[in-house]
Amino acid sequence: MSKVAVITDSTSYIPEHIRNEKNIVMIPLNVVFDKETYKEEAEIKADDFYDMVSKEEALPKTSQPAIGELVELLEELSQNYDEAVMITLSSGISGTYQSAVAAGEMVEGIKLHVFDSEISCSPQAFYVLKATELASEGSNGYDIMNHLLQMKNNGVPAYFMVDDLNHLHRGGRLNTAQLFVGNLLQIKPILHFEDKKIVPFEKVRTKKKALKRIFDIMDENVKPNDKVKISVIHAKREDEAVEIADELREKFTNADVWVSYFGPVIGTHLGEGSLGITWIKE
Question: By its UniProt entry, which Gene3D superfamilies does this protein fall under (predicted)?
């Protein structure tokens, strides 16, 4: 039987205790403040990141893991595994997928399958956790990849509400006039992933209405008794996320609902105060 390792990059934001428990290997992306580079999840945590962003004029930059780190990781894994499945964040917002493919071709003794989640955060985690489950049941890398592709084809909806327009302005996504009008009208953009990139879905006035809009989309897709996994994702708004998760548990009685977070790399795109909801039917 082929032994399969499961690798994720840091942007799936799977807590360390779950990674340890399920034997998930994590390789971090980097966040760069001025000339200081921090490995996400290893050297900088989400709350510290948002505190640093609030004090800096310029937004940080992000970068993928160095190809040498990926090669080193695969060489290490090749001592105990025949295959590895790596699930990366969207290739539309990071070069991690391409680097992993290149690293896989440079290492002998282990077959690397790289899966482009075309998304990030909890939706990416859905793929990672399924891959881990299949690997523990004895599936080989090809079977795991086919199953993940089927999941992707079935759809993993995810919608993110941006709370702080100033963050989008600092990142060059809004000009000054759009910022002024947006703040005046209390616009809360809802974003989603489309063609591998984070793009606007709708502009909604007020946070309450934006969240209601996401709930409405979910209602169109999920029935109260459906068996479904739901994740509520937040950028330094844990109390709000917990409240939303409680509401969803009451509404969807067969749902497995958990709270996750936007770490530094994705937080650079969305900003503090952002909230997201994602789900996948089982």
Answer: 3.30.1180.10, 3.40.50.10170
**119 located within any domain:** yes
Calpha distance 15→19 (Å, rounded)? 6
Query: What does the pLDDT read at residue 175?
Result: 63
Tell me, what's the pLDDT at 180? 56
Bridge-partner residues for 160, per DSSP? 191, 276
Please indicate, yes or no, if residue 144 is contained in any of the structural domains: yes
- Cα–Cα dist 72/76, whole Å: 6
In the prediction, which pLDDT does 186 show? 78
Q: Quickly list DSSP for 178-234.
A: HHHHHHHTTEEEEEEEETTEEEEEEEEESHHHHHHHHHHHHHHH--TT--EEEEEEE
Stated pTM of the model: 0.93
Q: Are 116 and 251 in the same domain?
A: no
> Does residue 35 lie in a domain region?
no
Same domain, 175 and 277: yes
Give dist(CA 198, CA 87) in Å, integer.
Answer: 18
Q: CA 259, 239, 280 angle in degrees (round to 5)?
A: 25
Do 160 and 274 form a contact (C-beta atoms < 8 A)?
Answer: yes
What CA–CA distance (Å, rounded) separates 19 from 26?
Answer: 8
CA-wise closest residue to 116 among 82, 66, 140, 151 = 151
Taking the C-alpha atoms of residue 37 and residue 258, their distance in angstroms, rounded to an integer, is: 30
Cβ burial 183-202 (10 Å sphere, 16+ → b, else e): eeeebbbbbbbeebebeebe
Adjacency order of strands within the sheet including 36-39? 36-39, 30-33, 61-63
Domain membership of residue 260 as a residue range: 158-281
Given this model, what pLDDT does residue 174 score? 60
Give pLDDT < 70 ranges for the chain.
1-2, 165, 167-185
pLDDT for res 1 = 46
